[in-house]
Design goal:
It is built from 14 helices and 16 strands. With 491 residues, the chain is an alpha/beta fold. The chain folds into three domains: 84 residues, Arc Repressor Mutant, subunit A; 111 residues, Aspartate Aminotransferase, domain 1 (Alpha-Beta Complex), CATH 3.90.1150; 236 residues, 3-Layer(aba) Sandwich (Aspartate Aminotransferase, domain 2). It has an eight-stranded mixed sheet, with helices on both faces. Strands 13-14-16-15 form a four-stranded antiparallel sheet, covered by helices on one side. Strand 13 and strand 14 form a beta hairpin. It starts with a strand and ends with a helix.
Length: 491
């Protein structure tokens, strides 16, 4: 193991025997030093050349580590002067604390009592979810999934009688162990398998978390705009939702404090904001964690599709920066493998585990073990990582084709947002445009486009279109965009 000398602060080490790439070792060492405030805002980092020489390694992993720090906002580059810790980061250190998924019957006359308290809005099925094809949001490409391999795994495990019984309410122990290793390595999540609760997708995770954390009337911050399913889960628990604006740095923490200084919880999508696609900056992340510690607020981190980032490595989860066990981390396999997978997970702070476990048992006793067993091997043997690498290339190509088609057909009449990651992007429209009416018409003509205004809780909605490309064949994208242009021109 080579260590940089004490003259370069902080001391960092690289271990050539470790399976972790060198650039990742350097990135994590410097990120940890910045988060722990051993490197202060404005402090200069060594040059990539000098650090590589001192460590006896190539410059490439050093450059890659510094580029990741720059991309996530922990550092800033000054032309001709080098790389520095970002001056916008908070300077005061948080005090670290230990950490502790025939004809129908007609109603007959007579009393039919129902709950008088039903806070969830009752909406008819949205027309843009009626069919499958171009621009349907939230879809991945099932044609590219290794179905033969998956079928073999499921078939083999379905012959095990132990997996056909009720399982552990928290999830299959082997699966939770494999999942913990993946989350630690790929997402920077700090957890052990005992903190993981397996659920049937991120929606159930949100429902369980909301029921555990929120009492009727409690204020809860939520991004504006935001994921409708999260809003409904929180409303179902009786929360008073406080919409907090999102800008290019993600959730505006200062604006949230001004609107509601002491909420019970905060819901956000920091790695890939839904639906606008922004990534929460390092400054905002640390501000949020520091503030949550001071006021005792919980943080619900929804990490629904962060694996698909195209211009850099996926950003580290917010939970990995938490030193006060304030973050409940939520993820799902439905967005990265196929929709009917219905396997998600919650990483729970230790002091919440018994309550989440009890609520999870009330919801549906225990998760299905069969897919968990197959997933444990699929992830543990590297098939999942290979599939993700391949799908990043597929989705990057589709994203590029979609952007080229939008630029060609619509020019500068629209603004494109959120194209750096995920399975959708947003096209903004002029203020006052009736995006809902356009999307209703589009659904009648076989385009499954979601209006951006539906994602706003407040009245000041920004009109636009959410265009999913994960489940849209590459060859179909240009024609679908031409169809969209015709709809816009006739509106």
């Amino acid at each position: 193991m080579r260590r940089a000398p004490a003259g370069i602060w902080p001391v960092v080490a690289v271990d050539r025997e470790s399976p972790k790439p060198l650039y990742r070792q350097l990135y994590e060492s410097y990120r940890e030093a910045i988060v722990e405030r051993r490197l202060r805002p404005g402090q200069r980092l060594p040059s990539s050349r000098s650090l590589a020489t001192e460590l006896g390694i190539s410059r490439l992993p050093v450059i890659n580590a510094f580029e990741q720090l720059l991309a996530e906002g922990y550092c800033e580059s000054r032309v001709g002067a080098g790389t520095y810790v970002a001056r916008s980061l908070p300077g005061e250190a948080s005090k670290p604390k230990p950490r502790r998924e025939p004809e129908p019957l007609a109603a007959k006359p007579g009393p039919r009592p129902l709950s008088t308290s039903f806070p969830i809005p009752i909406r008819p099925p949205a027309p843009w979810f009626r069919g499958w094809g171009a621009f349907r949001a939230g879809e991945c490409d099932i044609d590219e999934f290794p179905l033969r391999l998956w079928s073999r795994l499921v078939s083999r495990y379905s012959r095990d009688p132990h997996l056909l019984r009720y399982g552990d309410r928290l999830g299959l122990p082997l699966f939770r162990e494999v999942l913990a290793g993946y989350l630690q390595t790929a997402r920077g999540v700090r957890c052990g398998p005992e903190q993981i609760v397996v659920v049937s997708g991120s929606q159930q995770a949100l429902e369980i978390s909301a029921r555990v954390l929120v009492e009727p009337g409690n204020p809860v911050w939520i991004e504006e705009p935001s994921y409708i399913g999260a809003r409904d889960a929180l409303l179902g628990a009786g929360a008073h939702l406080v919409p907090v604006p999102v800008d290019r740095e993600g959730l505006d923490v200062a604006a949230g404090i001004a609107l509601c200084p002491r909420p019970r919880a905060v819901y956000l999508t920091p790695s890939h904001q839904y639906p606008l696609g922004t990534t929460m900056s390092a400054t905002r992340r640390l501000q949020l964690l520091d503030w949550a510690r001071k006021v005792g607020a919980w943080i619900l981190e929804d990490d629904y599709d962060s694996e698909f980032r195209f211009e850099s490595q996926p950003f580290t989860a917010l939970q990995g920066l938490d030193r006060d066990a304030r973050v409940i981390y939520i993820g799902t396999f439905s967005k990265v493998l196929f929709g009917s997978m219905r396997v998600g997970y919650v990483v729970v702070p230790p002091d919440l585990l018994s309550r989440v476990s009890a609520r999870r048992a009330v919801t549906d006793i225990a998760p299905s073990t069969l897919f968990q067993a197959a997933l444990a091997e699929f992830v543990g043997d590297g098939h999942f990582a290979r599939h993700l690498r391949r799908m990043r290339q597929v989705y990057r190509e589709r994203r590029n084709v979609l952007i080229a088609a939008l630029t060609s057909e619509l020019g500068d009449r629209v603004e494109i947002l959120g194209e750096q990651a995920g399975l959708h992007l947003v096209v903004t429209l002029p203020r006052g445009f009736a995006d809902r009416r356009l999307c209703d018409r589009a659904a009648d003509e076989g385009l499954w486009i979601m209006p951006l205004s539906e994602s706003y809780l407040g009245a000041a909605a920004r009109p636009g279109l959410i265009l999913g490309y994960g489940g849209t064949a590459t060859a179909a994208i240009p024609g679908a965009v031409r169809h969209l242009r015709a709809l816009l021109e006739s509106s």
